[in-house]
Design goal:
The protein is an alpha+beta fold and about 110 residues long. Helices cover about 50% and strands about 10% of the residues.
C-alpha cells in the first residue's frame, strides 16, 4: 500500500507555502524551536534517524506526533521538490489535516 496521493499533494502544497522543514537539520531545528506540529519519516529512513527524531519529538514534553509513511524518499522528494527522509509540518492547519488522514489510514504513531 502506498500513501494516498492526496497526502503527498498536501505535502507539496505545504512546501510551496513555506510550512515544511526538510532534512535532518531542518527537522531538528523546527522541533527544538517548537515550530513543528507533525513529523513525517520516509519508509526508507535509517533506524538511527527514526530513533533520533522520535526522541527529539518527545523530549521536554513536546509530544509531537511522528509517523512513518509508506512513501520513500524519492516519492516525498517528488511531492516536495526536496529529497529527504524526514519532514516536519510547521503549520497547525496542515498538521491537523495530515494527522487526521494518517490516524485514519495507518496504525497510528510510530513506536520505535
Amino acid at each position: 500500500m502506498t500513501d494516498d496521493p492526496k497526502l503527498l499533494a498536501l505535502l507539496g502544497i505545504a512546501r510551496r507555502a513555506g510550512r515544511l522543514s526538510c532534512g535532518h537539520d531542518g527537522a531538528i531545528d523546527a522541533i527544538r524551536a517548537r515550530r513543528a506540529r507533525l513529523c513525517l519519516l520516509s519508509s526508507d529512513a535509517a533506524a538511527r534517524l527514526q530513533a533520533e527524531i522520535k526522541r527529539e519529538a518527545a523530549f521536554g514534553g513536546r509530544e509531537i506526533p511522528v509517523f512513518t509513511l509508506h512513501a520513500g524518499m524519492a516519492e516525498i522528494g517528488h511531492a516536495t521538490g526536496l529529497r529527504s527522509a524526514v519532514v516536519t509540518v510547521n503549520d497547525e492547519g496542515f498538521a491537523k489535516a495530515m494527522n487526521a488522514y494518517l490516524s485514519e489510514h495507518t496504525s497510528g504513531e510510530v513506536d520505535l
